[in-house]
Design brief:
This protein has about 240 residues and is mainly alpha-helical. It has one domain. The protein is built from eleven helices and no strands. The protein has helices spanning about 5-20, 25-60, 65, 80-90, 115-140, 145-165, 175-180, 185-195, 195-205, 210-225, 230-240. The longest helix is centred in the first third of the chain and has 33 residues, at about 25-60. It is globular and about 60 Å long. About 45% of the residues are buried. One of its GO terms (molecular function) is metal ion binding. It is found in: Cell membrane. Its cofactor is Zn(2+).
Length: about 240
C-alpha cells in the first residue's frame, strides 16, 4: 500500500503540535493544541474512510484499490471541501465534529449482508480505536500538561465522532450497518431521507438543549469507558478555543 504524502504531511502537523504543546509559554501551548486537534482530526477523517475501504476490499470490492482509497489520500474521499475543510471548520469553531467524506463502495461485489454491515461499522470503529489509543497514551506516559490536554481533547472528538456515526440515522454509518437487513420499502424510504436526515439531526442536537445534553452525556460516558479524563479534555478544548 502506498501512503499519500499529503496524509504524511497531516501527521507532521500533528507531531509539530505535540512538540509545541510541551512548551511552558501559553501562546505556544495553545498553538500546539490547535495543531494537534486540526492535524489529528484531519488524519482521523482519512483513517475513518480508509477503514471503510480496506474492509470493503477484504470483503470482495477490488475497485476501492483502483480508486486510490487505500492510499489515505484525503483528496480522493469525495469532495475536499465537504470531506475535510467543512468538518475541520466545525471543529475549529467548537461544534460537533461532522462526519468526513465517503468512499464509493460497490455493494454488489460484497459477499453478504454481514460484510456490508462490517464495512459501515469499520469507519466509526476506527474512531473509537483511535480514541482508546490516545487515552491509553495519556494515562500511561508522563507528559507535559499541554500535551496531555491536547491529546485528550482529540480523543474526546474521536469518541464524539463514534457516538454520532453510530446513530441509526440515514446518511450515517449506524444506519448503513442495519440497512442491508431492512425490507425494501424501508431501504427506499431511507434512501430518500439520506440527504437531509443528518442535517436535521445536527439541528436537533445543537438547537434543542435536552437533545444536546443527552448526546454529550452519552459521549462522555463512552469517553469514560475508554479511560478518558474529562478534566484534561476540557482543558484541551479551552486551549484550542483560546479566543473565548
Amino acid at each position: 500500500m502506498r501512503v499519500s504524502p499529503l496524509f504524511l504531511a497531516l501527521l507532521g502537523v500533528t507531531a509539530a503540535g505535540c512538540v509545541l504543546a510541551t512548551f511552558d509559554s501559553g501562546v505556544a501551548r495553545s498553538a500546539g493544541v490547535i495543531l494537534i486537534v486540526l492535524g489529528g482530526w484531519a488524519s482521523s477523517l482519512c483513517l475513518h474512510e480508509f477503514g471503510h475501504a480496506v474492509t470493503a476490499y477484504r470483503g470482495g470490492d477490488r475497485e476501492v484499490r483502483a480508486k486510490g482509497y487505500l492510499t489515505l489520500d484525503p483528496r480522493l474521499y469525495t469532495d475536499p471541501v465537504l470531506s475535510i475543510v467543512l468538518p475541520l471548520l466545525f471543529v475549529a469553531i467548537g461544534g460537533i465534529p461532522l462526519p468526513g467524506g465517503a468512499v464509493w463502495i460497490n455493494h454488489g461485489a460484497l459477499g453478504s449482508r454481514r460484510t456490508e454491515s462490517m464495512v459501515s461499522l469499520a469507519g466509526p470503529s476506527t474512531n473509537l480505536i483511535l480514541g482508546l489509543l490516545l487515552t491509553v497514551v495519556v494515562s500511561t506516559v508522563q507528559m507535559p500538561f499541554g500535551l496531555a490536554a491536547g491529546l485528550s481533547y482529540l480523543a474526546f472528538l474521536q469518541v464524539i465522532a463514534f457516538v454520532l456515526n453510530m446513530l441509526p440515522v440515514p446518511g450515517l454509518d449506524g444506519y448503513g450497518a442495519i440497512e442491508p437487513w431492512l425490507s425494501r420499502p424501508a431501504r427506499e424510504l431511507g434512501a430518500k431521507a439520506r440527504p437531509w436526515a443528518p442535517l436535521i439531526l445536527f439541528a436537533v442536537i445543537i438547537g434543542i438543549p435536552f437533545a444536546g445534553s443527552a448526546f454529550f452525556s452519552l459521549a462522555y460516558a463512552v469517553f469514560d469507558l475508554v479511560g478518558g479524563q474529562a478534566a484534561y479534555a476540557a482543558e484541551g478544548m479551552s486551549l484550542f478555543r483560546f479566543w473565548e
